[in-house]
Design brief:
Largest sheet: 5 strands, antiparallel
Structural class: alpha+beta
Strand content: 15-25%
Number of strands: 9
Helix content: 25-40%
Radius of gyration: 17 Å
Length: 226
């Protein structure tokens, strides 16, 4: 089961066939108001957030988006760290949160909802796994309906906990299912496809630092099919 950022990192290292997904956060100008679970996540799998620096789809910016260190800002008393794809919903933690694992605050239309029972580490694990499915999902549906159903049925092992049935994998951990409770809400990511996509991104520049590198990343994403 994945119950910590470290567990998540180990799962994703295998998923992407890459044991160097982290960022050297101790050498970076990380905002002091970043909550510890965010910093831990960047330390373990921060390279996966880099495409978001350049407003490109990536492993953690295909459907919704998780901030990279360079994108983190605070707005008054809140620190937004994740954004829904249409910018309707935003997920934040309190500015100056002293807890090691602060509560997540959801901001949406006309109101602010404090998710009292959702803590940052728990949220990040679920969020990252859901994004991993979308990054690894074949939107062009190359598989037959029978093959897709077989893939869905193979995913029987809960990933997060025995009580959380939304994210499942198969025995070989080559598939990752995001189940929203209906036939239309079943998405299955394939490890082979994730590795293929990530290897192309990684080879170009996982952490571009120049305008030239940005141009190559932009051209690359124009060719990839998500």
């Amino acid at each position: 089961m994945i119950v910590s950022i470290k567990d998540l990192s180990e799962f994703l290292q295998e998923w992407y066939n890459d044991d160097d997904l982290g960022l050297p956060v101790d050498q970076m100008a990380i905002p002091s108001y970043a909550a510890r679970p965010l910093v831990d996540l960047w330390r373990e799998i921060g390279r996966l957030t880099i495409p978001y620096e350049y407003d490109m789809p990536g492993p953690l910016a295909t459907q919704n988006r998780l901030v990279s260190p360079g994108k983190l800002k605070h707005l008054g008393g809140l620190v937004p760290f994740a954004f829904e794809n249409q910018n309707v919903w935003t997920w934040c933690h309190e500015f100056g949160a002293k807890a090691d694992n602060p509560k997540v605050i959801t901001e949406g239309p006309a109101s602010t909802q404090n998710d009292q029972h959702i803590y940052l580490t728990e949220f990040l694990i679920s969020f990252v796994l859901e994004e991993t499915v979308f990054f690894s999902w074949d939107r062009y549906e190359r598989h037959s309906d029978e093959k897709r159903r077989s893939m869905f049925n193979d995913c029987t092992e809960n990933v997060i906990s025995e009580d959380n049935h939304s994210i499942k994998t198969n025995a070989k951990r080559t598939l990752l299912l995001n189940d929203h409770g209906s036939e239309e809400g079943l998405y299955v990511g394939e490890r082979a496809l994730a590795r293929e996509r990530w290897s192309v991104i990684r080879a170009k520049s996982p952490q571009p630092k120049s305008a030239e590198a940005f141009g190559s990343i932009k051209a690359l994403f124009g060719k990839l099919k998500f």
